């Protein structure tokens, strides 16, 4: 996003907030929906008491652990399945069958096996986010220009050297595309696994759930804003890392 | 013939191994049978669910939400993406919203929508719509930008009017990208429909799933997952058929 778009975005956000506040002030939207001023003060309250950091920290801990496991296993398995065609072909049917399953439907099954615990939540995050990462990596490895590999072979590189020095860097842009999709799914699943396994504990999903039960839309909006911010910030971080590592790839 | 069957079996062997391992675990009794039912039993139960009509009603509700949300997103998203690529002013206004909104988990708004639109289909369709419109708009926009200039020049050379240029050249050339957006959006729509139904609902497959899980009927839950998977598979097949019908040249 260039500077001009950033400016427009900020202006649009401010306009939305002002219009919202104005509508609330003129009582044109129902009063049970909080207005930005109340949400802001609620957010400030959460910040001051430290509740925000507690809940966001626990949620982030789950989603980031899930994401790192996905990033490591997804990329590793993807490269193996893409580079060693026989192994890829062996697991192919499993991928085609499991990939289209809406993984959230597995949550009740996992809950019975592992209880309503962090293991279940991290596992469901892992199951959801693994496949985009794996498939993007595998396709990225498949799509590496054969000329590069032949050139490497010609200059006497071993199979492992080709993998490390040619195939992996050439597949990196695709891998990052997959990781970005996975990261987005991670945050969706973080929220939903906390919403569905209704129990008390810490986490932004629980915060929303308890606010929902109490009918506190201001608290709900505040937590949603925090979730949105986290999703946005981590996407930017991933893009920054990508920019650093892939300075040679055109966007 | 026999050789072909054998080759098929070999290429699908991982499934057979997994089923075998699963059944061995069931048979050896490491896990209690209530929690870890035999797969054959699960298949039988899912057939049973289908026949007794417990599924039919909920399935149609889920399908309605799925297609309503996705259809709305397609109806709004495709024209919007096309227009954004043609009119700079619109693009300047919409593009920042789409790049900010893209990484945000928009499902998080669901509880608020329940507050506003009630627990029925409206809130769910709106969330599905919000999740689907992003990939559709972004893919349509970039696809339309990348239409080969040679095609446009050729059409202009042969004296095509603006309308003809759009309907005969630009739109068909963008169609593959539009379908790429749809391909991302459809599984997402299914996931979000099931998800919102599991969070809070009184009908639909997701509700059925969380209801059965709350009554600790593990084999029925698994049967539900199998039925949802078949549903997803059928929607994908339908999509591919439509895709082939409209993008027949690829």
Summarize the model shown.
The complex is a heterodimer of chains A (251) and B (250). Chain A is mainly alpha-helical.
Structure characterization notes:
- Helix content of chain A is 81%, strand content 0%.
- Chain A is mostly helical and 251 residues long.
- In chain A, α7 packs across α8 (159-196).
- The longest helix of chain A has 38 residues, at 159-196.
- Chain A is globular and about 75 Å long.
- By secondary structure, chain B is mainly α.
- Helices cover 82% and strands 0% of the residues of chain B.
- Chain B is built from eleven helices and no strands.
- In chain B, α3 packs across α11 (218-246) and α9 (162-199) packs antiparallel against α11.
- Chain B is globular and about 75 Å long.
- The two termini of chain B are 32 Å apart.
- Classes of the chains: A mainly alpha (251), B mainly alpha (250).
- Chains A and B meet through α1, α4, α5, α8 and α9 of A and α2, α5, α6, α9 and α10 of B.
Number of strands of chain B: 0
Q: Nearest-angstrom radius of gyration of chain B?
A: 23 Å
Average predicted confidence as pLDDT of chain A: 86
User: Which structural category do the helix and sheet elements of chain A fall into?
Assistant: mainly alpha
Structural class assignment of chain B: mainly alpha
Basic shape of chain B: globular
Number of helices of chain A: 10
What distance separates the N and C termini of chain B?
32 Å
Helix amount of chain B = over 70%
Helix/strand order of chain A, N-terminal first = HHHHHHHHHH
Low-confidence stretches of chain B: none
| Weakly predicted, low-confidence segments of chain A | none
Most residues in contact, chain pair and counts: A-B, 54 and 50 residues
Topology:
The complex is a heterodimer of chains A (251) and B (250).
Chain A: H1 3-25, H2 36-49, H3 51-83, H4 85-98, H5 107-114, H6 118-142, H7 146-154, H8 159-196, H9 204-214, H10 217-245
Chain B: H1 2-11, H2 13-28, H3 39-52, H4 54-86, H5 88-101, H6 110-117, H7 121-145, H8 149-157, H9 162-199, H10 205-214, H11 218-246
Helix pairs in contact in B: 3-11, 4-5, 4-7, 4-9, 4-10, 6-7, 7-9, 9-10, 9-11, 10-11
